[in-house]
């Protein structure tokens, strides 16, 4: 049992041990980490974790919370400055 937890920082999401192990093992399924892009500006505005499994293997499900430590891992996309 590890006690590391996921944490959202300004630049990225730090993952706990369970999550980082899952990400490493994710080939053709499982949980992957993907950058979220703004459609107008080609820069990443956030980072999301997607679970691909079973009937959701094609489109995937965005994880709001880490299945290992229960911490919030979904970053709300930042609003564009006016
Ligand atoms: Zn976690």
Question: Sheet bearing the most strands, described?
Answer: 3 strands, antiparallel
DSSP summary: helix tally: 1
- Secondary structure: number of strands: 5
What spatial order of strands do you see in the largest sheet? Answer: 3-4-5
What is the terminal separation in angstroms? 46 Å
In N-to-C order, the SSE pattern is: EEHEEE
Which percent range fits the helix content? 10-25%
- The average pLDDT value, as a whole number, equals 80
Low-confidence stretches: none
Question: Proportion of β residues?
Answer: 25-35%
Structural class: mainly beta
Count of all domains: 1
Ligands and ions found: zinc ion
The shape is globular
Give me the Rg, rounded: 13 Å
List the helices and strands and how they pair.
Blueprint: E1 7-8, E2 13-14, H1 17-25, E3 30-37, E4 44-52, E5 61-62
Antiparallel strand pairs: 1-2, 3-4, 4-5
Description:
The protein is mainly β and 82 residues long. It has one domain (1-82). Helix content is 11%, strand content 28%. The chain has one helix spanning 17-25; strands at residues 7-8, 13-14, 30-37, 44-52, 61-62. The N and C termini lie far apart (46 Å). The model has no long low-confidence stretch (mean pLDDT 80). The structure holds zinc ion. Zinc ion (ZN) binds at residues 5-6, 15-16, 18-19, 66, 68-69, 71. Zinc ion binds next to α1.
